[in-house]
Each structure stands twice: as structure tokens, then as C-alpha cells.
Amino acid sequence: MRRPRSRRVAACVAALCLATSAVAQERTVSITIRPAVERPSTVFEGWGTALAWFAHVTGGWPEADRARLADLFYGADGLGWTIARYNIGGGNAADTPAYLRPGAAIPGFWRQPAGATGRDWWRADDAAMWDWSQDANQRWWLDAIRVRVREPIFEAFSNSPPWFMTVSGRVSGAEKGTDDNLRPGFERPFANYMARVVDELQHRHGITFRTLSPVNEPNTDYWFAKNTQEGAHWSPARQAMMIDATDAALKTRGLATVIAAPDETNSHLFLQDWAAYPVATRARVGQLNVHSYGTVNQTGVRDVARASGIKLWMSENDTPLDKDPQDFEGMPSALAFAEHVVLDLKRLEPAAWVFWQATENTALSGPGSNWGLVKADLRVPAAGPHDIHVTRKYWAMAQFSRYIRPGYRLVPVDDLDTAGALSPDGRTLVLVHVNGGINPRALSLPRGWHAQMVLTDRSHTGSCVSGTTVPARAIATLLLTRTIGKTPCATGR
User: Fold this and answer.
1) Which domain range does residue 430 map to?
2) Would you say the pTM of this structure is higher than 0.90?
């Protein structure tokens, strides 16, 4: 039966109201947050990124574009990062056809003499076999960071030896991903190569590499010759040999740089590597590095750091939501990423948290992904133009890095979705809370503190808002101070 138009309109309005009401009626839940400010733990050193591979591309862009990226990540009004991991390239042979992904072909600093053939021609003590004009784009970032950050922390790391030191003749790995790719007996030449690069770049750029990581995700099957990025497998025994040789090479050059290791892909494999190192090798490690592509046994790595008295970094991660299609404004990957950071801080208690690639390739077709904090097409010519897309994941990162600053101490928090940090003077407490659910959360905070909330969700990007109720699918930073005064989030830091 066809109803009169007025009745149909009334029915539609009523249905719409019911639908709207159903969405709006998700009940607010109450959560009490209990930070243990009386027992702070790790002194936090800061946040940062690996420069491979995006820096190898973007460092060659026009000044306005590359400066904008540097400001976004390291500027006072950006993320305020203070850490950078510089990738010492291995470099394939000049006649190797291009096969690595955009930005991944990081050049080495070696020069093959005219007429030299085979793989046994290189001599580290021959000045003619070094080429210090290489890797200008990534090195631009060293200078850009130095002028933007008052006390930057630089780490050098290697993914692969140069091609002529490898078994396969390629920097992407051995023919099989479970085989070591450094030629037998080449630990010392490779160590000398890395130590010389560290020494030379320190002088040429006026910086200090505090640490050098000689192996990367070593005890995995990721690295094989047909792979599209630099990498090398290292058995725990070969890792130990490489650490010993690198430590000796650094000391021979009189460098203060210390070894960071093992830069393993997850905590489970980190523990396997560390358990196999001889006591003497362990003593040569000045910093423990672990990635968090997997969260099993993270507290075990924390315990190794505590028992050894060695600083621990979470030195690489990016965690977009699996199968989440590219969406610059989407919250699903931002929430997944933020939740991962919270849990890393709680379980590893690291002194630093370092992102993988701050800028990732924009998908031109297909679903793409949400890797990276900023998206750009890394395949276009250096001259551009360059479309730079700041994603919601960038703002998720800002919820942490703008407020948990170097010198703050991590504090335990009983809520699983909340990480905390206390300022050096004890007068500011930062709580980052991730609400990935569909119910708003009314947070009950400790007494004696005055709170201001900063919010990122679908409608906000690091915005100061009133109250302490965190909306559904949102990331909130609570800035708690002992006294009422200048609004903390108005100054950012």
C-alpha cells in the first residue's frame, strides 16, 4: 500500500533519527588510570627514523620540498625527533642491472679501479679506492638534522657488505635466505670499511656517530639474492665474529663510537642471538638494538638489558594495520600503530623508539598500504613536482614524540592502553592513551594533577580539547601538571 507523502517523510525522519540515535548511544565506559610515578624506569632519549631508503631519494629533491620533510620530522613545530640512523650502503657492482626497490640502491664508498676484475681488488689503505662523493642525498639529511636538532643522536648501520665482499656477488643476500653472505674471512675488511666510513663522515659533516650497528635482522630468512633491498643473513656465530672485528676496527681508528647489536627483527630471535654470543663478544656491545616486528618475549629482552646494564633501543618498526588500503586520513592504521608503540614502551621499556621509513611510496594503483608517516611518489624525477601527503599516522606519532621528550623517564601504568613518562623535574606527567574501540572512555586521573588533553582522531590532528573523555577510535595525550598555569599543549613542548 502506498502511503501519503507526508507520512512517508515522517517515517523516513523517524528512521533516520533511530539510526543516528543508535550510533550516538554507545555508552561511555569509565577507566581509572594509575601511573606509578614513585618508581620511574628508563630515561628516554628520544624518537627518530632510519634514513634508508627515503633519504636517498628525497635528499636530492628541490630545497623547498626536502626542507619541508626535514621540518616535518625534525623541526621544532614538527615531530621533534632527535635520532637518525644513517645507512652505510654496500653497493652492487656497476654492471649489475637495477633490481632494488625505489631508494634501496644505497651506494657504497668504494671505487673499483679501471681494468680491475673479480672480487679481490679492493684495498682499504689505498685512497684511490675510496669515493667520498657518493650518497650525497642521504648525507644531505645528516646536515639538515644537525642544524635542526640541538643534541642529535646519530647511529650508523649496515644492511649488507659491498658486493665484492659477498658470496653471491649481490647486496640483497645469498642465493638462499638462510645462508651467510659475507665471504669467509672477510670480517676484518668489512669492519675496516664501516669504521672508515664512520670516521670520514663524522669529519665531513661535523657530527658524531654514537653507535655503529654492523648487522641488521641477521638471523632471519629475509635476505636472498633476488630480494629487492640490501640485506644479509648472519648466523649467531658469524654475528659474534663481526661484532668483535668491528669493535677492533673502531678502536684502531681511535673512535668513541660503540657497537649496537644485534638489530634483530623481533625479541624472540634477539634472545637466540644473544644467548649464543660469547662473554667477550657481549662485553663489546655498547647498546642493545631490537626491532618489534613481533612482540613475543619482549620482556625477556628488557631483562637482558637490565641484567647486562646496557642501554636498549627499539631501533626499527612500522606497524600499519594489515590489509588496510592506503588512506591518508584513515584512523585504522594510525590506531594500530599507536597501540603498538604503547605496548613497546610498556614491555621493552626502551631508551629510544625509532621508526623505519618516515616517508613511503604512494600507491598509484591498487589498494596500496599505510606504511610510512608521510606519503610521496619516490619514483618521480628529483626535479618534481612532489606531492607530499601528511597522514593520520604522522599525527599518531606526534601524540608521543611532541610530549615524551628526551630526559623524561618512562613510568609504569596499570592500564594496557596507556603509556606514561615523567619529566626530569617531576612536575609534568605525560600519558598517551589509545582508544581503538567504539565506546568513549572517561578517564579518571590521579589526584593532585591538572590535566589538558591533546587529541588525534578522524576530526582532530594533535588538537587541544577540553575534558578527559577520549572519544571512540582516538589517540589522546594527557598532559598533567602539578600547578595551573600556561596551557601545556599550547606550547607543544
Assistant:
1) 25-38+416-491
2) yes
